Amino acid sequence: MGKQEKIIVVGAGLCGSLLGLRMAQLGYEVTLVERRPDLRKVEQAAGRSINLALSNRGFAALDLVGMKETALEIGIPMYGRMLHNTEGETYLSPYSGRKGRSIYSTSRTHLNQLLIDAASKQDKVSFLFDHTCTDIDFQKKRINVQDNESGAKQILEADYIFGTDGAGSVIRESMKQRGYIKQHDFQQLSHGYKELFFPALPGSEYATEKNALHIWPRKDFMLIALPNPGGSFTVTLFLAHEGEENSFEALSGPDKIEAFFKENFADAFEIMPNLQDLFATNPTSILGTIKCSPWLAENRVLIMGDAAHAMVPFYGQGMNAAFEDVLVFDKVLKDTDGDLEKAFANFESIRYKDAEAICDLSLDNFKEMQADTADPDFLRKRRIEMELEASEEVAYFSKYSLVTFQEDFSYAEALRIGRAQDKAILELLKENKLSEDMPIHEMHELIKKRTTEIL
Fold it and tell me: Using CA atoms, how far apart are residues 367 and 221, in angstroms rounded to an integer?
């Protein structure tokens, strides 16, 4: 039997399209409102994609709606970080000591298209593309929308409204302006990003290792590259906005751009023939974290995904966290026997601490990726962790594995345990009490004891 409640989802990006699909599968009548045109029908502008790293939490949510295998087909497995030093030497740092574990480089647009397509095949789903939500009446549970092309306006009513309209959420800002959101924290990094590109070699060959996330860590800035189908890589430069040197401000002309890349990323420069054009054409974008609370207004309007907890991209968990929001909401709805009002009321109390934790972990990983990955003590710590994870004699998961591969651990648990483990190993290394040639059980017991003391 179909549900009686009508639902509006504002924002048909990754989170919204997955949520709309799931709610339709449960029998609800769903209208998705999206300010952009239908992604399946328009060419995408370059320069803002930042390839996504799809991992276990995201796959668990996709499995819920029957889309896991589809997502696997369009992704490229990455088994670790390929670190590039200034001399062009490389070192592969595996993501896990357990054989075969990987994250998947995935096109944001392609995955979104597939989710929209799956949702559109549901009888109870309708889309309003190229329509902007301009206002919301929280008491009457209705939104004002405007056709971006014609300017025509209309009012849509529903029993429940989800705001999944991203970091620049109209729903969140309306909640904030009308006093529903009491706490709102936006932290913008001094760094921004610019998207670049490695083209495929003849015959669709890859110019560098295909199955890795490439990082050029340079302490105060970095370059990363993720593989695409067809032999190319999406490349992203993370750099300070301002400063006399090593900043976007300082790279004021072709000569300075070329000199900067030759000095810091010589091996990457050699496989970027269109660097100058991309640098001039693609925008420089900001990076920031948004934390806010409450996520609920009038027990009938709820925000989730980036609208509720936008994060910097350095743990590769933004999409995974948003997808897990849908998974958690589905469980909360089941636990309340399908009572949407109770599910709306209970969701934040269950999810908030984990959203806050992954925002903090993402900021932690910014430092780790741009600086720590080039530090000898950090690399020693990772080798020890890989040895522990590879062993069948002990049960050990690094912080990265807890976040990325152990979805049974909440983000909050991963943060608490993972930070303590990191501190324990680094302390023991500095005290010369831990070494890579120790028996595995002795190594594990030392780390376990110190971690417990720290916790």
Answer: 10
pLDDT over 70 (residue 373): no
Inter-residue contact 8 to 162 (CB < 8 Å)? yes
The residue length of the chain stands at: 455
44 pLDDT tier (thresholds 50, 70, 90): low
- For residue 168 the two structure tokens come to 């620049």
C-alpha pair distances (Å), 188 with each of 47, 52, 246, 286: 20, 21, 19, 7
* Cβ–Cβ under 8 Å, residues 301 and 366: no
Tell the burial category of 376 from Cβ atoms under 10 Å away from its Cβ (0-12, 13-18, 19+).
exposed
DSSP-assigned beta bridge partners for residue 142:
137, 157
> Which two structure tokens, joined as six digits, stand for 440?
């595995």
Burial of 408 (C-beta count, 10 Å sphere; 0-12/13-18/19+): exposed
pLDDT tens for residues 129-152? Answer: 999 999 999 999 999 999 999 999
Task: Name the H helices within 47-163.
Answer: 56-64, 68-74, 108-120
Residue 435 has pLDDT above 70, yes or no: yes
Query: Count of CB atoms within 10 A of residue 385's CB?
Result: 23
Name residues whose C-beta falls within 8 Å of residue 453's C-beta, 6 or more positions apart in sequence.
424
Contact 15, 308 (CB under 8 A): no
Strands 222-227 and 233-240: antiparallel
Of 268, 203, 1, 13, the C-alpha closest to 115 is 13
